[in-house]
Amino acid sequence: MIRTVVIDSDTLTRYGLSMLAGAHPDVEVVGETGSAVEAAALVERARPDVVVVDVELADGNGLPLVRALRDRYADLGIVVMTSLDTDDVLFRALDHGASAFVVKTAPVIEVLGAIRHAAVAATSFTATGLLDALTRRREQETKFALSPRERQVLTLLRDGLSIPEIAGTIHISKSTAKTYVARLYDKLGASSRAQALVTALRTGLINYEPTPGS
């Protein structure tokens, strides 16, 4: 029996997963909540084998919750289940320590497969379309061909640093920092910071989370 906790703001999703579990004798929903705040106490109390977490919760992003659960429970299976079917969300789920990624429109067998995988292989990641997503990421990296320094500058742009602040952070002159930013804009086909960041986020060159301490 796979003891499962569902953390999803959508009542119908929680009900649907409970009904799904009831139709399959190897899965049992032992708790549910729509709140990230309530999730930690629920997991501590219910001691599940697997948690199913939505990316978009009523009181916050579900991915920091995924990271917190992974850091606390090394053997806990964590399924990220979301309506946001994008490569960026998939890779963020992987980076935050999820065991599986599945979209809410997936067939029942795929949802069950994600839960069963998470129950027996908490630290290995699975997702339908993972190979295709990896291929697209490699293609994007090859297309833009950013140098390590350009990637560093791009991350600092994401974190909101000005050109003088970028120069000070990585110990280069302001004119050199301007050159790196201009080069980034050219490679990304952008004319502004906002356009550059949108392209970088969409193509997976950066993620949404700021670097620690920023």
Keywords:
214 residues; alpha/beta; six-stranded parallel sheet; two-stranded antiparallel ribbon; 15% strand; transcription regulation
Report what the structure shows:
The protein has helices spanning 11-22, 36-46, 62-72, 87-95, 108-120, 130-144, 148-158, 163-170, 174-188, 193-202, and strands at residues 2-7, 27-33, 50-53, 56-57, 60-61, 77-82, 100-103, 126-127. The protein is of the alpha/beta class and 214 residues long. The strands form 2 sheets. Strands 2-1-3-6-7-8 form a 6-stranded parallel beta sheet, sandwiched between helices. Strands 4-5 form a two-stranded antiparallel ribbon. Strand 4 (56-57) and strand 5 (60-61) form a beta hairpin. Helix 7 packs across helix 9 and helix 8 crosses helix 9. The chain starts with a strand and ends in a 12-residue tail after the last helix. Residues 3-119 form the Response regulatory domain. It comes from Actinokineospora globicatena. This is DNA-binding response regulator. Pfam families: GerE (PF00196), Response_reg (PF00072). The modification 4-aspartylphosphate is found at residue 54.
Compose a concise summary of this entry.
It holds the Pfam family Response_reg. The protein has 214 residues and is of the alpha/beta class. The chain has helices at 11-22, 36-46, 62-72, 87-95, 108-120, 130-144, 148-158, 163-170, 174-188, 193-202; strands at 2-7, 27-33, 50-53, 56-57, 60-61, 77-82, 100-103, 126-127.
